[in-house]
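User: New here, please read:
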Amino acid sequence: MRHEHGGNIYKHKNIIDFSANINPLGIHEDIKKAFIKSLEMAHNYPDPDCVEIRELLSIKEKVDSKNIICSNGAAEIIFAVCFAFKPKRALLCAPCFAEYEQALKVCGCDIERHILKEENCFKPDNDFIYDINNFDIMFFTNPNNPTGILSDVNYIEKIIKRAVQNNIIVVFDECFIDFIENKYMYSAKKFINQYDNIIILNAFTKFYSIPGLRLGYAVFSDSEKAYKVRECIQTWNVSVTAQYAGVAALKIDNSFDSDTIKYISKEKEYLLKNIKPIKLYGHSANFIFFKENERFGNEMLRRGIMIRDCSNYYSLGKGFYRIAVKTHEDNKRLVDIWENLIYSKKEI
């Protein structure tokens, strides 16, 4: 069975989707205009090299454009990396994003997991650093999905140095880092020009609220590795529409970034103040990870609120959930239904 993700609204009608972590400010008007304009070019093949997006990303990420690959969502690069390097042994934290395991297994790679401890609030520690030894590749998500735990740049450097000592390619998934204030205090980008074993994943999906357009990218510390991975991706993988949207997104004024972070911070504070789960864990990005009754997710769904049941993440059992930070109207609706559910006579 394919791993079930959040955001599958097609199975349910008339629900508010808190299972997918998308920017609550919605699609920027400049991206909408670019989407409409792109239809005039839809009769042509897309640029197979995504030149304009890569040049803009080169300025943003401060690396040469030849070290950047654009993709049909970040997941495409995860699979391409595994196909390109054909690793025999891989290291993952658990819980983590399911596509790492799926891609590695397709390539016949053996997987070893470092289980993040619940009693430590799922925070990676030095024990994980010590586990970085005889592997070909490792994936590390920052902030972690689904736990919401954020590791600082000092910890990231420990990972990189340990990986370098053991000749390991380290893939940092930073698809949620744009929601973090002062994100460069946490990003592996600081080390991209110092080491040659780093690959950093990101996507336009969450921050620019365009998951339906499928647009991701990766920054490589080594251009030869970037070329090798690009050779494993089909031609014309990024549509004309996605490329237009990406260019528009990268030209948006910086105030959109600050407005997004400010809004999410305010609404997250509202949620944290008003929800009362059994146990609260990470919430550094635009989602909150917590523990509740095993029937909590189904009961919320019956009341029109779809949250992310995290029990299908490796090492997590029933009762672990994740909710997105959405608009105030939606967040208030969730809080009201949650309170009514908890304090009603109906047991859950």
The CA atoms of residues 267 and 328 lie 6 Å apart.
